[in-house]
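I'd like us to work through together how a protein chain folds, taking it slowly. We need material for that, and I hope you will provide a protein of your own picking. Go ahead whenever you are ready, and we will take it from there:
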Amino acid sequence: MHTEGEMSEIVNKYTSCMQEIKLRINAIHSIIKRQTTTLYPYTNLEFICLQIRKILELIAMANLVANKDEYQKIREKFSIDWNAKRIIETIEKVNKNFFPTAIYREQLDNEKIKYHWHKKVSNILTKDIYIKIYDEISNILHAQNPFKIDRINLDNLQQEALEYVNLIVNTLNEHNTYLCNGNIVNCNMNAFDPNSNEKEGKVSVHYFGQVTTDDIEEVLYE
């Protein structure tokens, strides 16, 4: 089990990864909405693809944060890892249920239990889709060989990139990451503070420990 200090470190580092993802998604949207430009359509697309790749890497880094102790046991030099696919393949060896689970909340008519989490089942990232996107995006970041017959179609790729961004946003909006010890890191990317006048919510991350049936009944019937 994690100590209070370890839980705090996980929450802080996980929040940092998610905040950076949110900023990079905002940067992508600024290009898509033509609020900013690199002055050339292809470099605009390359910028978007670079941000997508870095976002995918940050998702992997956040998983590393959440499962650091177990990851370190089989990967001694974990602190210098950067390759998202390698990180994910290693984490999967110690935690099969590591990949972020996209969820949505159902508000309950209950004074003691306010929400119920449901898993999203469509328009979300899975591990296999994640790896597919990572490989495809990485290829775009290299100069095209002028002798290559199958040249990249700019319009098609731009549409695909937008679909990838939507998958990422829909998955991360609110999600759970399951730890090796069975506990959960819950993240809401756009949590609103009812006491704030801010139009955009903030990243909110919480660490949840497991409870027994007796614990739940005690809360419900006390």
About this structure: The chain has a mean pLDDT of 84. Strands lie at 101-107, 115-119, 174-178, 184-191, 202-208. The chain has seven helices and five strands.
